Structures are given as structure tokens and as C-alpha cells.
Write a sequence for this structure.
């Protein structure tokens, strides 16, 4: 048996909605999907919210090069230095972008807050995502983590 988690993060990796709004969004999510172990987590700086060990590749948004191994090396290096920004230069074609805007095969991203439930429901419909966004006050990205 594997576990499935739906994780909602703000589209903006630096967004920090109030705890009250985040809790309300999580409550709304629990009404939309049958899930358990709802969890709210806050971070001081954008954390990489991964989909799974077996998540798909990471590609350059400009030239589509496979940059997965570079990505994880760079991520570790930044962790060690405590670097806060997400500004990067792609290793393949030397263009400037954000870590958050790389082309992730499985939806992943960076965030200062996560709203998570353990569930097996379907992905959020566009109107459901809009409801969550209205409660939270910012656009969101939905990530599925399969363990
Ligand atoms: Zn490139």
C-alpha cells in the first residue's frame, strides 16, 4: 500500500498568507476531499516541496535539457550556504530564471507554507482550486506526493 498526499502551496514561493487563512484553506480542502491527517506547515524560507523519490525529471524551461542531477546538487549547495533567493542561471543555456520556474515533470515547487492531506481523491477541479485560492488569498499550485 502506498500513501498519497495532496499538498497545496502558494504559486509564489515567497508568499506567506496568515496562519488563519492557511487553516481556513486547509479546512475547505478537507470539505472538498475525504482525507485524513490534515497538516499545516510553515517555513522561514522557500523549501523545495517534492512529489516523491521517484518523481519525474527536471528540465530547462528554455532549451528542455535534462538538468535533474544539476538541480539536486545546486539545491544541496544552497541549503549548505543558507541561500534564500531562488535566482539561478541554467547550466545548459546560461539563462536567468527562478528555481521555482523550472520544468518539473511531476508538479513540484518551492513554498513557505504547505497545506497537506493524506487522501486518494481526484485532483482539484479548476473551480475547487479557485475556492481554495479565494480563502487563502493567493493563487496556488497543487502537488501530489506518492510514497
Ligand atoms: Zn537550457
Amino acid at each position: 500500500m502506498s500513501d498519497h498526499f495532496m499538498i497545496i502551496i502558494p504559486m509564489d514561493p515567497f508568499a506567506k498568507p496568515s496562519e488563519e487563512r492557511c487553516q481556513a484553506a486547509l479546512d475547505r480542502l478537507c470539505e472538498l476531499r475525504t482525507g485524513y491527517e490534515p497538516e499545516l506547515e510553515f517555513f522561514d524560507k522557500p523549501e523545495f516541496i517534492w512529489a516523491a523519490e521517484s518523481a519525474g525529471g527536471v528540465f530547462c524551461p528554455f532549451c528542455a535539457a535534462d538538468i535533474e542531477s544539476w538541480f539536486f546538487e545546486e539545491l544541496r549547495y544552497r541549503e549548505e550556504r543558507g541561500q534564500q533567493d531562488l535566482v539561478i542561471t541554467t547550466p545548459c543555456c546560461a539563462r536567468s530564471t527562478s528555481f521555482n520556474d523550472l520544468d518539473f515533470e511531476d508538479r513540484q515547487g518551492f513554498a513557505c507554507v504547505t497545506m497537506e492531506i493524506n487522501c486518494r481523491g481526484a485532483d482539484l477541479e479548476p473551480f475547487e482550486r479557485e475556492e481554495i485560492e479565494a480563502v487563502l488569498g493567493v493563487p496556488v499550485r497543487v502537488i501530489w506526493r506518492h510514497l
Q: What stands out?
A: The longest strand covers residues 35-49.
